[in-house]
């Protein structure tokens, strides 16, 4: 019994534990929501063509976008080209697991580890996204019918490309992911028990 | 003296001129509309110069850019073999649907499927469109039309505006008395216009018309799930000319009413000889009773169809005397009256269904013809409305008024179903046949718009030589007096039309990907040409702006089966496909796979290309069909 009590005797306070628990659940919820999107709008597509990125799949009107992109020689966008989709959810589950354990055992070192993993993972994700955007926008087929200057759409913002204006940004899942990481960092940083006062 | 005389003449002329100018000025001041109307006939028209009521009328039909019409109107295209779709109130023609005639605009008649559907005929005569109904109201699922020439009926699916089935109807020569829909689309019916010996191909001299010739009423059953048509049963009718028809509804549900002329059974100079009797008939059939007879086996098979002799089913057919050679018959929205239009008698005769039933119950008959009881005219008729000369058809609004076209008078009369008096008459331009009121054939007409389908349009549009277009005129029914809002030229030759609220129709835009369907290829790797002896099958893909493969070589005499899949699953991105000098043309809608088959009987090189503009590089969407000569 003493061992078990010791195991649960960490120095994260109640609010910190709640925040970690919440962070885990929010991250879990985000896995079922879109993380990021790209919308293409042109005169003949007033309804917009979108690419929606989930943690494990692509959605939206990719076939139509691919068909149009061949004019400028852009690589065919296909889910199989993204090994990330095999990994992201697994990493997320690990972090979710760690966050929930942290909430249970209250250990600050575990809190920092989990929050750190989340933050680093998030940063890698954003970098990966930017890399793909640059890849698609700059490695254009030199044989393409329509020659355009290489481009990299911003991760959040707008970009003009021929008759299309692209609108990019995070979606609900992406915001939840960010919130989850912030919650964990904040909890690890601020919400520890003041042992001296308690004693 | 001479000088004085000259002065007098000059002065009096000048006085007259000044007086005239003042008079014109004053009359213009007193009656500005007259001046405006005069200006309207001139060349320079500005909005300022157009009378206010003309501007108001134009505004009522104006649909601003980006906005949509309130109604679809489906007009038959007569011997053009098409159905024309208009938006109301703008009266813009938004689609031509080919039904009984090849239409190269959409490749209808060249693909294997459409070729099979058209069968051996290259034209048809579309007469009366009928929208499918649920509880007597349009449900927006299907449109059915008849072919008066080659005894067929067709279904147009209203989710795609395509003809999807054509059905041959045996034993009917010219189904003019068609099509009319029963209130829950159980059946639509077709009645013969021309008497003839049945089945087809039977010979009998024309002198034997009364003995050997027959007319027929066919009940075509509709599958409630997919609209599939099949001939349910037919009824053997006398060799009269059945003209128009309507199904009973609400109170009169279960009955069908047909007008007939030539009860004289004449067979030459019908103009005279079929117009001798003072009274012809509205024929009333109890179709539920006949349906039951068909189910009970009271029929014989004629040309593969269950043929019921109504004399074997007593009580199923009655004759209602109607003024000489009646044309249209129309059942009121409440189903309580049926109205026969005189054609050569200047009245619309209103019959009470209730009194008709009473006559049957009381056996109040004034005689019998060909074994059918003739009900007592005096008892059944409730009014003879003096609508004018040449009444043909009647439609209804939701406020208890009927509207009847007067072919000879070139007017439309509005009359009350309460007092049976004419309350308004408007001239039309000219010779109206049918007319179409918004949802006017349902149990709850909208009464907002009326379209007069005129046979002549003399002087109404820019001249196009001796054959003028027909015309349709949009009439406002929201005011007490009917008001013509707009004139529209139409192609030959609308007979009837039906108008349905636009929101009742739901269309789809793109074909679904279906790898199981024969010939479909969705991946470049699968696009290919296969040979099996003399049979070559082409599995081709088309998308903006390419074909895969883009050259196809066969040997002279090969039998070619060509599949083309449009892999642009994108709204409104259609690809055409035409082979130059090979008389082949088709069109693949987004996601669609089309098929055509032909023999490569001409050696040489024949370019093929996309006929339907698809992209900036549309012109480059092409390839070559190469036919290697025999013995090379």
UniProtKB/TrEMBL annotation, chain A:
Entry's transmembrane regions: 12-36, 85-105, 110-130, 173-191
Top-level division of the source organism's lineage: Bacteria
Entry keywords, A to Z: Membrane, Transmembrane, Transmembrane helix
Protein's recorded name: Uncharacterized protein
TrEMBL record, chain B:
Family matches, as NCBIfam families: nitrous_NosZ_Gp
Enzyme class: oxidoreductase
Keyword Metal-binding among UniProt keywords: yes
Assigned keywords, A-Z: Copper, Metal-binding, Oxidoreductase, Periplasm
Major localization listed first in the record, in broad terms: periplasm
Protein name stated in the entry: Nitrous-oxide reductase
Subcellular location: Periplasm
Protein source organism: bioreactor metagenome
UniProt entry tagged with the keyword Oxidoreductase: yes
EC number: 1.7.2.4
A GO cellular component entry from the record: membrane
Gene Ontology terms for molecular function: copper ion binding; cytochrome-c oxidase activity; nitrous-oxide reductase activity
Domain Cytochrome oxidase subunit II copper A binding: 533-632
């Amino acid at each position: 019994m003493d061992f078990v009590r010791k195991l649960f005797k960490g120095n994260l306070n109640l609010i910190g534990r709640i925040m970690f628990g919440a962070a885990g659940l929010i991250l879990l919820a985000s896995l079922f929501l879109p993380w990021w999107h790209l919308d293409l709008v042109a005169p003949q597509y007033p309804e917009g063509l979108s690419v929606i990125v989930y943690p494990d799949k692509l959605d939206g009107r990719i076939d139509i976008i691919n068909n149009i992109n061949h004019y400028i020689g852009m690589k065919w966008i296909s889910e199989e080209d993204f090994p990330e989709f095999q990994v992201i959810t697994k990493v997320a589950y690990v972090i979710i697991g760690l966050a929930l354990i942290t909430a249970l055992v209250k250990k600050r070192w575990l809190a920092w580890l989990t929050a750190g993993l989340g933050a680093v993972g998030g940063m890698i994700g954003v970098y990966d996204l930017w890399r793909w955007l640059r890849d698609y926008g700059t490695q254009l087929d030199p044989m393409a019918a329509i020659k355009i200057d290489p481009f990299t759409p911003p991760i959040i913002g707008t970009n003009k490309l021929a008759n299309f204006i692209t609108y990019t940004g995070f979606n609900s899942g992406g915001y939840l992911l960010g919130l989850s990481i912030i919650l964990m960092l904040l909890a690890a940083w601020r919400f520890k028990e003041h042992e001296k006062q308690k004693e | 003296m001479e000088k004085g005389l000259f002065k007098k003449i000059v002065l009096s002329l000048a006085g007259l001129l000044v007086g005239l100018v003042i008079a014109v000025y004053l009359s213009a001041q007193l009656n500005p509309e007259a001046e405006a109307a005069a200006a309207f006939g001139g060349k320079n028209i500005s909005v300022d110069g157009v009378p206010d009521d003309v501007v108001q009328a134009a505004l009522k039909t104006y649909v601003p850019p980006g906005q949509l019409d309130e109604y679809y109107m489906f007009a038959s295209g007569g011997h053009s073999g098409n159905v024309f779709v208009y938006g109301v109130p703008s009266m813009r023609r938004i689609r031509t649907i080919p039904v009984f005639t090849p239409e190269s605009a959409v490749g209808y008649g060249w693909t294997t499927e459409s070729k099979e559907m058209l069968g051996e005929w290259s034209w048809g005569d579309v007469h009366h469109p009928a929208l499918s109904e649920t509880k007597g109201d349009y449900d927006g699922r299907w449109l059915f039309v008849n072919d008066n020439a080659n005894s067929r009926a067709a279904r147009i699916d209203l989710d795609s505006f395509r003809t999807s089935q054509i059905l041959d109807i045996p034993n009917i020569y010219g189904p003019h008395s068609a099509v009319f829909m029963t209130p829950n689309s159980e059946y639509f019916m077709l009645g013969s216009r021309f008497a003839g010996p049945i089945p087809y191909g039977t010979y009998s001299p024309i002198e034997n018309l009364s003995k050997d010739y027959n007319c027929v009423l066919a009940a075509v059953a509709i599958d409630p799930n997919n609209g599939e048509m099949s001939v349910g049963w037919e009824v053997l009718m006398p060799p009269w000319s059945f003209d128009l028809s309507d199904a009973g509804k609400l109170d009169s549900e279960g009955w069908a009413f047909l007008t007939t002329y030539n009860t004289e059974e004449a067979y030459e100079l019908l103009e005279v000889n079929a117009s001798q009797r003072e009274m012809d008939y509205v024929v009333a059939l109890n179709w539920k009773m006949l349906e039951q007879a068909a189910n009970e086996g009271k029929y014989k098979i004629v040309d593969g169809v269950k043929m019921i002799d109504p004399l074997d089913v007593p009580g199923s057919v009655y004759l209602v005397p109607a003024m000489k050679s009646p044309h249209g018959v129309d059942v009121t929205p409440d189903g309580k009256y049926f109205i026969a239009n005189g054609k050569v008698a200047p009245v619309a005769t209103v019959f009470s269904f209730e009194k008709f039933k009473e006559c049957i119950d009381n056996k109040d008959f004034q005689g019998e013809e060909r074994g059918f009881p003739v009900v007592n005219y005096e008892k059944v008729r409730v009014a003879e409305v003096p609508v004018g000369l040449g009444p043909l058809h009647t439609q209804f609004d939701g406020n208890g008024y009927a509207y009847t076209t007067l072919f000879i008078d070139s007017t439309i009369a509005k009359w009350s179903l309460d007092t049976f008096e004419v309350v308004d008459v408007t001239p039309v331009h000219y010779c109206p046949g049918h007319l179409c009121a918004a949802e006017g054939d349902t149990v709850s007409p909208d009464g907002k718009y009326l379209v007069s389908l005129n046979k002549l349009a003399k002087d109404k549009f820019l001249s196009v030589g001796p054959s003028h277009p027909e015309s349709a005129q949009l009439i406002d029914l929201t005011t007490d007096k009917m008001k013509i809002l707009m004139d529209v030229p139409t192609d030959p030759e609308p007979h009837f039309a039906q108008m349905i609220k636009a929101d009742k129709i739901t269309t789809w835009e793109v074909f679904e990907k279906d790898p199981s369907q024969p010939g479909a290829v969705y991946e470049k790797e699968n696009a290919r040409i296969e040979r099996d002896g003399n049979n070559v099958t082409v599995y081709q893909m088309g998308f903006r702006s390419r074909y895969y493969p883009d050259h196809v070589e066969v040997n002279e005499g090969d039998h070619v089966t060509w599949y083309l899949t449009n892999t642009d699953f994108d709204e409104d991105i259609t690809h055409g496909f035409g082979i130059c000098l090979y008389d082949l043309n088709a069109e693949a809608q987004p996601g669609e796979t089309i098929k055509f088959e032909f023999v490569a009987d001409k050696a040489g090189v024949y370019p093929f290309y996309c006929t339907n503009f698809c992209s900036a590089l549309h012109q480059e969407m092409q390839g070559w069909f190469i036919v290697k000569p025999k013995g090379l």
